[in-house]
């Protein structure tokens, strides 16, 4: 499954540099002028998880396959994007297709890199982006109302549910608040999701700082972190330049040595993914054998058949049971046979809720 994360922000904040670094591919042109990214660039990268390497080593797996995350680099938005300024409308539609939004915010000074607003002010930049996304959602809902009212007259119950939500959301958006602040009951979650609102998506701020501020941030990142905390969002501090340099190194040892010299313990990619997983409440399970060690991603709270369906739809349709070993038990017992001998291998049925780190082997019949 993984997840699809849209990278948004004003022009010249470091979005494309970060995208290039994170994906290790020069698919987006990073240049010192607005709209250098005309179409959304998409790339999939493996999710780093040290547990996968350990499991593969124990099982002697010939191939290691991490779960993946899809990054979508969306062109820089500007004031008026919701009304088509800066080619903004077509880019807003791309944001609707992602699972989470990573808003890159410039938190560094550099006279050689112009700022579209004339100066560096991350909180102002955040307000500009949020305003444009709110206006886009507002316009989208206003267009829906006549059609929903027509369907309700025809007796459509689903449209009645949606209109009730729209009537709650319109004054909220008009007041300049994102849709994610609305408390939606469990029974209305499906109707809410069908509205496909941009400001309903989980959000993280990615503070792009200079190389010497990557470890501790600066006054600007502190302001962004305070805002994120106040609104229940997440915040990650990254130096896109450092990530770019790391991406150019060949071995894991070289990368680790470079990180140490910068006072860092892990890459920005790892922090970004960890934050994204938290935002979307995702967990990882593993299938391990001599041929391959494979990581998979599911929503927290997923039952065993749903997890089996991530591997193949037939696994879910014909699910019988899951042979389950907790990660710690697998490592302590030095593999499946050891876990079986120690009584740590469990047979779980359709009602089993998959836990993060589970090593699973599915039995099915179709």
Q: What is the straight-line distance between the termini?
A: 23 Å
Query: What characterizes the major β-sheet?
Result: 6 strands, mixed
Number of strands: 12
What is the percent of helical residues?
40-55%
Class derived from helix and strand content: alpha/beta
Q: What order do the SSEs take from the amino end to the carboxyl end, as H and E? A: EHEHEEHEHHHEHEHHHEEHHEHHEE
CA gyration radius, whole angstroms: 23 Å
Shape: flat
Task: Write down the oligomeric state.
Answer: single chain
Kindly summarize this structure in a few lines.
The chain has 366 residues and is an alpha/beta fold. The protein is 42% helix and 19% strand.
List keywords for this structure.
flat; six-stranded mixed sheet; 14 helices; alpha/beta; three-stranded mixed sheet; 366 residues
């Amino acid at each position: 499954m993984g997840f699809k994360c849209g990278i948004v922000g004003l022009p010249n904040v470091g979005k494309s540099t970060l995208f290039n670094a994170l994906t290790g591919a020069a698919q987006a042109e990073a240049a010192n002028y607005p709209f250098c990214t005309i179409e959304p660039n998409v790339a999939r990268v493996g999710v780093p998880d040290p547990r996968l390497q350990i499991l593969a080593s124990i099982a002697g797996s010939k191939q290691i396959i991490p779960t993946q995350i899809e990054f979508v680099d969306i062109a820089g938005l500007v004031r008026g994007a919701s009304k088509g300024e800066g080619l903004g409308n077509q880019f807003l539609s791309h944001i609707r297709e992602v699972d989470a939004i990573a808003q890159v915010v410039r938190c560094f000074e550099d006279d050689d890199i112009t700022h579209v607003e004339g100066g560096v002010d991350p909180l102002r930049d955040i307000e500009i982006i949020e305003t444009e996304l709110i206006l886009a959602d507002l316009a989208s809902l206003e267009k829906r109302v006549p059609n929903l009212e027509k369907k309700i007259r025809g007796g459509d119950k689903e449209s009645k549910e949606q209109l009730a939500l729209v009537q709650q959301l319109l004054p909220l958006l008009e007041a300049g608040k994102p849709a994610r602040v609305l408390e939606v009951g469990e029974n209305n979650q499906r109707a809410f999701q069908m509205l496909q609102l941009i400001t309903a998506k989980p959000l993280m701020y990615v503070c792009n700082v200079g190389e010497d501020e990557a470890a501790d941030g600066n006054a600007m990142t502190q302001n962004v972190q305070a805002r994120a905390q106040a609104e229940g969002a997440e915040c990650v501090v990254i130096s896109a330049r450092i990530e770019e340099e790391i991406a150019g190194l060949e071995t894991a040892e070289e990368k680790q040595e470079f990180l140490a010299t910068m006072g860092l313990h892990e890459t920005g990619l790892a922090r970004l993914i960890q934050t994204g997983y938290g935002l979307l409440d995702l967990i990882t399970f593993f299938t391990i054998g001599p041929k391959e060690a494979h990581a998979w991603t599911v929503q927290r709270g997923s039952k065993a058949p749903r997890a089996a369906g991530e591997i193949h739809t037939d696994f879910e349709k014909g699910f019988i049971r899951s042979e389950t070993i907790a990660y710690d038990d697998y490592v302590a017992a030095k593999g499946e046979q050891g876990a079986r001998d120690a009584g740590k291998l469990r047979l779980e049925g359709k009602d089993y809720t998959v836990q993060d780190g589970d090593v699973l082997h599915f039995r099915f019949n179709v």
